[in-house]
Amino acid sequence: MTMALEMNKLDTNKKVGLFLVSAIVLAVLPFVVGGLLGNSWLRIIDFALLYVMLALGLNIVVGFAGLLDLGFIAFYAVGAYTFALLGSPHFDIHLPFYITIPLGALVAAFFGILLGTPVLRLKGDYLAIVTLGFGEIVRIFMNNLNAPINITNGPQGINLIDPVKIGGLSFGKPLEIAGHSFNSVYLYYYFFLALTVLVVIMAWRLQHSRIGRAWVAMREDSIAAAAMGLNIRNIKLLAFSLGALSGGVAGGLFASFQGFISPESFGLLESVMILAMIVLGGMGHIPGVILGAVVLTVAPEVLRDVIGPLQMHTFGRMLIDPENARMLIFGLALVIMMLLRPEGMWPSKRRKAEFDDAKKG
Amino acid sequence: MDIFLQQILNGLVLGSIYALIALGYTMVYGIMGLINFAHGEVVMMGAMVTITVVTSLMGAGVNLPGPILVLIGLVIAIPACALLGYTIERVAYRPLRNAPRLAPLITAIGLSIVLQQVAILIWGRNYIPFPSILSHDTVEIFGASITVLQIMIIVLCLVIMAGLLIMVEKTKLGRAMRATSQNPGVASLMGVNVNTIISSTFMLGSALGAIAGVMVATNYDQAHYYMGFLIGLKAFTAAVLGGIGNLGGAVAGGILLGIIESLGAGYIGTLTGGFLGSHYQDIFAFMVLILVLIFRPSGLLGEKMADRA
């Protein structure tokens, strides 16, 4: 998919070739990963797809429209809780996923507007702080809305969330085909992949639409954009709500995939993580953002597997707790990456040129 | 009425600590136009270092009165935090002075994650108790009670803040700081070494943060590697409330926020008919922040600006 986005520079034959190759790679990927490394790694790939959706959503807000959002995880949370409350024994409501996921996306988009309206006049660091506060408010409410009426079940979270069911096929159970059993991570992989492709197409079409150009104009100079007849208020709210929309979809998927959610999963660190994905990947550049999301989901897991044994091997004992070391490396990576390559791993040509200009002058 | 006065007193204690931290944010913002996201971690480090010094002195059998022990801890924590502030500026901000605004924000967040993890490495994930060496005697004022320690916190905060204001207004360093905040280019033409001024601002703000950290630790009798985040966020809110970049504003905003928060926590149960309890206390700071930014983005004492960025 990432390759397919760079297609317009290539001739038609190569486009078709690239598209087919990426489609085949993505189609057989779960069998390669699951077969060679085991289901737990396929599970991580599934999470990578979720994060691709989240990062692309935040990219609409931060990358396209230039609005710095540090509370994006709130929309993920809203989507997840909508799904969980309407599909779990908690209220004993069991709506199917084709209702709850779109509904979660809509509720998240509504929250996007709710956040967007008061912060219309803010920019930069101020916007970052207010969105951060918004994210915390949502988390505090989730943590405390268990009394006097138990809505969110507080810090314990919601358990036994329904898996996605298509027809008679439940994603929660392994699928038996011709004597082979496929774990639910395989089913979720294809489901997530389909929705990720949808989100990529949405982001791609948006970027090259009238709205996308309006976002760029606003990002570069909102006064000039307003003078050109753009309704800044509307396009800002559109950015917030469309970004929140994909956050909400990813949230619903997360809830069903995990089967359990609690406020703990929606802290500030998660927001920072998603922001880091798009900044390290290449802000505003869809292939870069996808790359950033995949790298930042998979790399920490690899580290988790490597740090412990590596320490045992070299020192004969654990010097640093792997979780601790993992975060330490993550923090250092953020700093070093920004100092050495502030434009990200795979920036768009235009952005790269801007950074090169800034370095010269 | 007792509850009201009690909450006002609690708010004053909390507020003067917020004010001290808010000064660190506002000084850096005034000079560079950037929010120092790692400032909360400096506050945490100040508390941790002091506790470590005090505990190890006590462990070594040094028999001194509590306040002196804390003072010795501070004497070590203040330069340590000033050095930390200097390092933060050199690593996260100076190389990126001409980069887009998002870049220093990310480096600062990265550094604050690193500092938290370093704190976990040294002190672990658990709450660290503050040794009970300070008296918790209370004084009754019109039916409300306040500890001597808390009175000392308020007084000390006021003294430090007054000293800082005098320094900024009267001394040569203060004049250079004000010049740099107005226009770094022109200030350097007038012979001000802008880099030195920015470094000293970070160091000064961090030193205040260290003192505030110790106050938080003594007031709550504990410290934690994650304590910097929430208190930093609230102090930032205080700085915005008062008008960011304005020293007097940071003080006013801090005290006001402290009082709003304690009154809010004290009365939210009654106001909502028991629906929301005092565990929603943390929401008030964010609510205040959002409301201020909507209705008066320049803050209470800040100058009007055409375009806040």
Give a description of the structure.
Chain A: It comes from Pseudogulbenkiania ferrooxidans 2002. Chain A: InterPro entries: ABC_transp_permease, LivM-like. Chain A: One of its GO terms (molecular function) is branched-chain amino acid transmembrane transporter activity. The complex is a heterodimer of chains A (361) and B (309). Chain A folds into 2 domains: 1-37, no CATH class; 41-267, no CATH class. Chain A has 14 helices and 6 strands. Chain A has helices at 2-5, 12-37, 39-64, 73-85, 97-116, 124-144, 184-207, 210-220, 222-227, 232-258, 268-281, 286-315, 322-340, 349-360, and strands at 87-88, 93-94, 165-166, 169-170, 175-177, 180-182. In chain A, the strands form 3 sheets. Chain A has a two-stranded antiparallel sheet with strand order 1-2. Chain A has a two-stranded antiparallel ribbon with strand order 3-4. Chain A has a two-stranded antiparallel sheet with strand order 5-6. In chain A, helix 2 (12-37) packs antiparallel against helix 7 and helix 12 crosses helix 13 (322-340). The model of chain A has no long low-confidence stretch (mean pLDDT 87). Chain B is mostly helical. Chain B has a domain at 19-227. Chain B is built from 11 helices and 4 strands, in the order H-H-H-H-E-E-E-H-H-H-H-E-H-H-H. In chain B, strand 2 (138-141) and strand 3 form a beta hairpin. Chain B is globular and about 60 Å long. Residues 305-309 of chain B have low confidence and may be disordered. Chains A and B meet through helix 6, helix 11 and helix 13 of A and helix 4, helix 9 and helix 11 of B.
